[in-house]
Amino acid sequence: MKKFNISPWLVLLVVGAVFPGCSSSTDAPDLPTIVPPVSTSPSITHENAVLANIPQTAIDQAIATLHIAYQHTSHGSQIITGMNSLEAFPAFADKYSWDDSGQNSAALDLDDLGIPGCADLSQGDSIDSHGVTPWVTATRELLNNASNSHINVVLWSWCSINGHNAQRYVDNMEILIGEYPDVAFVFMTGHAQGQGVDLTVDGVHYNNQLIRNHCQSKGRWLFDFADIESYNPDGEYFWDQNMQDNLDYGGGNWASQWCAANEGSLLEQLATGNAVDGYGGCQGCAHSSSPQEANLNCVLKGSAAWYLWARLAGWNPQ
Fold first, then answer.
1. For 173, left (φ over 0), alpha (ψ -120 to 50), or beta?
2. Which of 270, 276, 266, 311 shows the shortest CA–CA distance to 294?
3. Which residues, in sequence order, are CB contacts of 50 under 8 Å at separation 6+?
4. Secondary structure in 3-state letters for 77-135
5. Average pLDDT over residues 273-299
6. Which domains does the chain have, with CATH numbers?
7. Cα angle 13-121-66, degrees, rounded to a multiple of 5
8. pLDDT tens string 2-59
């Protein structure tokens, strides 16, 4: 495969985990209050899950230049499921095509489950014999292999971030950034587990805020997985209302409520397939497939992923 030069070179590390109950940190850093990501920050949030905001030229550039390796477990598959729904939607034709093999030059090259050596970040939340986390070792082995010289995006995804050591995560990300100066690593937050805005050390919100603080202070790329699922398309916020990973909250399911109020909209049709010939809706959104409307969770994350790809390929929306 032809090697493409991107300035800067890009590797996306969206750090992945499946199993809860992993080790917690022992030395908790001070955690100042985070301010929302500003528009100039390289953070992908719910505000970026709007396909209409991405120009065709930016999509074409992403397809032409990015070569992505993605390693994840169940929650991380939400991005892939969302991208699949966009690819399958009849009105989009081939606009959002992606190819797991990297053989189709007209589609985004994304090697799904493409990083052997560590299942995800939660299972890799420890220090190995190399003095780093196992996912750092796996990333090194991937990037140091000459046959992978075309890869310029590496993506890992959290599954459960609860109880894990977010400071160790950001520290080890910085190790990779220092070792591969021609690569841009992108951080990721973890999904909702009903804890809301509780800042208990090593809890979901604490860890997410620590990661946001780090990325904002260092100017790092961030795919804010948690933020994307925290807001409905009208900008209403639900994270602080005991929100769960299928978008249930104290007042119901926000995706189901939004789709009922916006029947016939593009997002409602992408989630449900309502009145769309040849398309059955987004299917199998891990941990967010019931009710059917909850698949909107994956649709929004797939949309935000395309925004990320466009940004990584050089598009500046400003």
1. alpha
2. 270
3. 303, 307
4. HHHHHHHHHHHHCHHHCCCCCEECCCCCCCCEEEEECCCCCCCCCCCCCCCCCCCCCHH
5. 98
6. 43-260+298-312 (3.40.50)
7. 20
8. 444 444 444 444 444 333 333 333 344 443 333 333 334 589 999 999 999 999 999 9
